[in-house]
Each structure stands twice: as C-alpha cells, then as structure tokens.
Write a structure and sequence with these properties.
Length: about 375
C-alpha cells in the first residue's frame, strides 16, 4: 500500500507592515505548491488565508526608547511564537525582516528544535550599523535571502548561504514613468503609529505652505482612523488605502514627502519625485547616530551609494526646511536617476516572490 503523501509544513513570520506585504506575495506564489502554512502576519497575509497566531500590530514597534513600555508583552509573544513553531514541527521556518522579534524567536527554535531548517528574508543593514550581526546570523540561520544585489558580500564571508532574490514589492510596477505630472502632493508619514505622531504634524504644517491643487495621504487600512484624527474639518486632504489607487497616485504625483522606509523604493520605481524625512525621539536619535556608519538613511540613496533624493533628518525635519527643499531641488535630474535605479532593481530574470516560494518549497 502506497504511503500517504505529507504536505510540506512551512512556518512564516512577518513582524511589521512592509514584511507583511512581502509575506502576502510569497503566500500567493505558494498556493500551487501544496504546502501547509502557518505563522504570524498582518492583514495582507491574513487576506492570503494565513491563520495568524496573533496580529503583527502587537509587535510592530520601532525605536529604542519607544519600545520600552512594550517589552514585557513582546517578550511573551516571542516565547508564544517559539512554542507554536516547536509544536508544529515545520520543515522550513521563514522569518521576514523585523530582526528584533524574528531573531529572538529563531534563537529559541534553534535551541529547542535544531532540525528545523531556517531561512531569513531581508538582510539586516549591517553595512549601516552593527556589522557583528552578520556573524551572528551565520550561526543562527541556514540561508539568507536578500532583496538587493550588493548585500550578499557582507554575509558570504562568514559562511552563510546567501542568495540575492530581488524585492517582491517591486513586482507590480511595470509601466513607464509618467513625464507630465499632476498638480498632486502626497504625504506619507510612515507605517507605525509613533511615526505618524511624530511626522504627520510636520507634514501638515508644510502642506499649509505648499501650493498644490490636490493633497492625498496614502496609508494602510488600519491607520486611516489614526490619520483622520489629525485632519481638521475641511482640510481638503484625502486619505486612501487601496493598493491600486496608491500605485496610480505614485505615478502621477509631482511630489511626495515621505518618512524614510520601504515606501521610498515604491515611489522611486514608479517615478515619483520625493523628499525623504525622518525624526526620532531625541534620546533614541542620540543613541542611534553613535552606531550608524552609512552616510544616508533612505534606501534609494543607500542602494545608489549617492544622494539621489534629499534627506531631512531630525533638526532639519521642519515644515520650513521641507518647503525650501521642495522649491530648490532639481526634480528632473532626480527622475532621470530614479529611472536608472529602477532599471537596476527590476532586472531580475525571475519574479522574486515565485523564486522565494520555490526556494522554500525545495529547501532541505
């Protein structure tokens, strides 16, 4: 009698919105691969039929000082997740970004279930700060998958199997840049609540000084109510969360003012002129700046290794400085360099999410 076929068991963790979006694309690509999938994700992964152990809003906290009030809850969720993985005994355990949460879970799983094969997707930015993480990652994981072509060199030297796979969030952007832009301003204050609290008031003050026929805040569905609290009656500012509409706005806008993060890449690939801003709690900033080794904070500039887009950080992140930068920046040159960056990032032969799905499916 033929033995019953056992589905390959996969456990996936994404700890914040950008990882959730990547995870959702991977789950979609894995539908035809006959796998049994469980894990932790947000709304996008849950929309792809993941029954999440808990929602990632419980752990999506950034900063150093900012995380202190949440430490006990996050520690509890780390141990809960590790126990769930050990109980489910997956063939492959995939973590996506969020090193603060994912690496701690992985460390426990490695100790309790060393037979589980572990893959991490999205390389920690060891070229920017804390380079010792590369060595630690090599001891913890079996394989690292990177989004950008310059990253493997930092990990291969420690014997970690490292593969460049491309960025799943760039798959949908195939249309050419729109040369004639609408009189449209986009404000993107971040994907974490503490980022919105810090950045949105500054962006709204800038908006009051900047002339544009239309102003839109693209965001995630669960953040719409948070953002609306900051908008007074009759502000005339729209808030949208539908993905296709966001992508079209990115193509058409004459300017985006954006908090540093994954959104800067999506804007770059669609050809949206931008100014990148970021501001942290003062104590957090003083701690972080002692360790950061890169000259830039935005992915666009880091990947290009030169300043394509303006960056306004900490004390420079004011409404008046954003306005001055908007008036003085040569956006025609910026768009030309963004097109070159797009050609580089979108040149992978295979669709990244499908390649990642196949690696997971066949990993042994």
């Amino acid at each position: 009698m033929r033995a019953k076929h056992r589905k390959r068991r996969i456990y996936i963790i994404a700890g914040e919105p950008s990882g959730d979006a990547i995870g959702a694309r991977i789950l979609k690509a894995m539908r035809s691969l006959d796998c049994e999938i469980s894990g932790v994700g947000g709304r996008k992964m849950q929309d792809e039929d993941l029954l999440s152990l808990f929602d990632i809003s419980e752990i999506s906290v950034g900063g150093i000082v900012e995380i202190i009030p949440h430490i006990l809850r996050i520690r509890k969720l780390i141990h809960m997740t590790a126990r769930d993985i050990v109980d489910k005994r997956p063939d492959v355990f995939l973590t996506i970004d969020s090193p603060g949460f994912c690496f701690r879970v992985a460390k426990i799983v490695r100790k309790l279930s060393p037979e589980v094969k572990m893959i991490h997707l999205v390389a920690p930015s060891v070229w920017a700060w804390r380079p010792n993480r590369a060595k630690k990652l090599a001891r913890l994981y079996d394989t690292l998958l990177t989004l950008f072509d310059f990253e493997p060199q930092y990990f291969l030297k420690y014997g970690l199997d490292t593969k460049y796979v491309g960025h799943p969030l760039l798959e949908e952007f195939h249309e050419e840049f729109q040369e004639n832009k609408d009189d449209l301003l986009l404000l993107l204050p971040g994907s974490r609540i503490q980022e919105i609290k810090m950045m949105l008031p500054i962006f709204l003050e800038f908006r009051a000084k900047y002339e544009a026929n239309r102003c839109v805040i693209p965001t995630l569905p669960h953040l719409v109510p948070v953002i609306r609290k900051y908008l007074g009656a009759g502000s005339g500012i729209e808030v949208i969360s539908e993905e296709r509409e966001k992508n079209e706005l990115y193509r058409r806008a004459k300017l985006a003012v954006v908090a540093s993060g994954t959104a800067t890449l999506q804007l770059a690939i669609t050809g949206c002129p931008m100014i990148v801003c970021y501001k942290l709690n003062r104590i957090t900033f003083e701690i972080v700046k002692r360790f950061v080794k890169t000259e830039y904070i935005s992915l666009v500039n880091i990947i290009s290794n030169h300043r394509i887009v303006p960056e306004l950080i900490q004390r420079e992140c004011t409404a008046s400085m954003i306005l001055q930068t908007a008036l003085e920046t040569d956006f025609a040159t910026q768009l030309r360099e963004l097109r070159e960056l797009r050609n580089r990032l979108c040149s992978t032969e295979q669709i990244p999410s499908k390649r990642i799905a196949e690696i997971i499916k066949n990993f042994s």
